[in-house]
Amino acid sequence: MNSHRRLSTNAPGPLYVTSACINCDTCRQLAPTVFTEAEGLSAVACQPATGADWRQALHALLACPTAAIVSEEKNGIAEAMDDFPPLLEDGVYYCGYTSPKSFGGSSYFIVRANGNWLVDAPRRVPSLVKRLEEMGGVDTIFLTHRDDVADAKLYAERFGAKRIIHASEISAQPDAEHVIEGFEDVQWDNEMKILVVPGHTRGSMVLLYRERFLFTGDHLAWERQRRTLEAFDDYCWYSWEEQGISMERLAAEAFEWVLPGHGDRVKLPPADMKKAIQQLVSKMKVR
To answer: Kind and range of the H or E element at 179?
Structure first.
């Protein structure tokens, strides 16, 4: 029996958030017109007003890592499930189905002619596994750091995929097939560049794809209220000073997308992205 209660902060109606919420922000990212933050947890700010709002709310329900979102209306759930993984741009997809093992961290799927990549890992959900198989399977799983591996081992076993992780994070995937040593950048192939960015953890890494898409783990994210790039000093487990140095190195790279594990995604024109990360570097130096 589910003992989680409906939160009193929800707007009246058939859709609501329960006390199982861990405030990971997934629902607010996927359905910002429906969900809000209230008293330190997510809540339904207003019941979905349109079909599009309902569809987004159902995406949030499916992606929630703790099944904290409940809909008394069941219509549309199967169709919403078929939307995963949704396309972001140019063969890059958001996986959804976040995991409590990674506190609701986002993961991504990249379709490539020379082998598809999974960046961090979602929950193992049969419908998502089937869809990834239809899209060509998974050749490589890139793990940004120890916090967000979720069900990476299960996906690796299912698809025969190779996992990449830094030596300092190896305890999270001790049987990983590729271990990055040291702190130098690694040009993996003509499209993939791995940058080691100590800070959040000692072996945190980011992945730069085609000099456009930057998969940042917990190193860098978009703060949608302030509309700025942000790093989180209250969730820095290794060294805030080192994270600042890593950010300064990262500011020399060119990219348009920031695709984090935690925090919001964003696409900016390259000049605006460069300005935003330079502003963050300056801010981190004075904290």
So the answer is: strand 178-180
